[in-house]
Amino acid sequence: MPIARLLAVVGLLSLAVAAHADSGTDWPQWRGPHRDGAAPSSPALIASLPEDGLKPVWQTEQLPAGGWGSPIVADGKAYLFIHFRNPKTPEALPKKKYPYLAEGKRGGMSAAEYVEYEKNRRAEEIEFAKLYEFKEFVFCFDAASGKTLWKNEKLSVYSQFVQSGTLTLADGKLYILGAGRHARCLDAATGQDVWDVLVPGVHVDEFYASSFAVIDGAAIAFAGTLFGLDARTGALLWQGDAKRRGEHSSAVAWRADGRELAIANVASGETICFEPKSGKELWRVRSEANNSTPVIVGDLLITYGSSRRSGLRAYRITPSEAKEAWTYQRLSDKGSSPVVVGNHLYAQGEKRIACLDLATGEESWSTTLDLASPQYTSLVAADGKLFYAFDGLLCFAADAKEFRTLFETKFDKQGLMATDATLRKRLKLDEVEKKPNGLEESTRIYKREVGDQGPVACTSPAIVDGRLILRLRNSLACYDLRAGKAVESSTAAAAAQR
């Protein structure tokens, strides 16, 4: 066979193997099958909403509120982790002397004054924690109907903010880092505990949003420092020192030279590559990244920092080194992670979304979002479309030439996904606003019925075989976004509710 034809056949076989490997429709961990926010395969999705909006195909029972864990989907089931707190007694709780102060509400405090305030606030929070009961829930739902299949409920402990990791499913087991440094493994079919181990270290009130990466038999996450457990038994394989500190970032897998390796953002704005089972470090680079999750495309590593100085950075990597390819310093976010579609990278930060050329880091376009304070939530992608679930849901085209909104929605109490105009019409707010003091009444109605609904902030949706699974305020909801199916599914869902 001529060499050119042989190479072509090999190339087609390689594509076939890759297509087979990516043909699965699961979303089994934080940021999807490859932990990069992208669905490897997808049917054609809608480019606009039905005029009357889109009803959920299913919506789960009302769920306890707590934490920012995102849903995962695997083997026909959807899973969710929740860290919940509830007052022990129905009496009104005493007013706090040191409530949490967002950055814009610190009244000109000096850095030293704020440090002292935070010290007092955390001490007060520990005392207040005695008035609450803390629980952790792992829910399993039928991914076709939303029916609860099982629930694992466990008493938990106080943490400064609610524990907020996302479940990881690997080899029929679910992995989660719970509050108080408890690493847990559950049987995904039954919800029964497999193991529950305490990660070494001192717990006061820390919370961690790091999600396990299960790589080469090791379960890896951050709990103050990076650590690795035997995925089968929970035995501690290794634990990092002060140079491997971290709290909220998640490690990613990288296959190179026939080996399974791991890459993670650690303290002091550095990113490391290491062996999963031994923790042996192979290289370290100053990426200026922190809470985001790294993204790997072939031999290109993308990191994202929380300041413009840090920005987005790309590195050409091998098992022995990382060489910087480009830096983009016009965007930043405290925890959001970027996504790659084709030859371009898309990232959200500072009320903006930017599209960059993956090879050069040059900006193709950027746009400003009409949102108050979007942060932490990561983009997901499928079928050449990108989704940003914050306050509502924004869908835009993966178009390297321009920012092109396909649809932008809000949600009402019944889970209806619709445009703002459609929801206002359903609530008859134009008529309300004609009354005396109508604007005030309209504002109250809208806030109650729409403004207080929608996705849980800082979570990201799963997208599986054209179905978007979102964590709403008190439930999970599934929306069929397949082209030609959306209206049909919405009609069927409406009929089922009658």
Account of the protein in words:
The protein has 498 residues and is of the alpha+beta class. It is 15% helix and 36% strand. It is built from six helices and 33 strands. The chain has a five-stranded antiparallel β-sheet. Strands 1-33-32-31 form a four-stranded antiparallel β-sheet. The longest helix is centred in the N-terminal third of the chain and has 19 residues, at 3-21. The chain is globular and about 70 Å long. The chain starts with a helix and ends with a helix. Mean pLDDT is 90; it is low at 1-24.
List the helices and strands and how they pair.
Layout: H1 3-21, E1 58-59, E2 72-74, E3 77-87, H2 111-128, E4 132-142, E5 148-155, E6 168-170, E7 173-177, E8 182-187, E9 193-198, E10 213-215, E11 218-230, E12 236-239, E13 245-246, E14 252-256, E15 259-266, E16 270-274, E17 281-286, E18 295-297, E19 300-304, E20 312-317, E21 322-328, E22 339-341, E23 344-349, E24 352-357, E25 363-368, E26 380-382, E27 385-390, E28 392-397, E29 405-411, E30 417-418, H3 420-426, H4 429-432, H5 438-451, E31 462-464, E32 467-471, E33 476-480, H6 486-497
Antiparallel strand pairs: 1-33, 2-3, 3-4, 4-5, 6-7, 7-8, 8-9, 10-11, 11-12, 11-13, 14-15, 15-16, 16-17, 18-19, 19-20, 20-21, 22-23, 23-24, 24-25, 26-27, 27-28, 28-29, 29-30, 31-32, 32-33
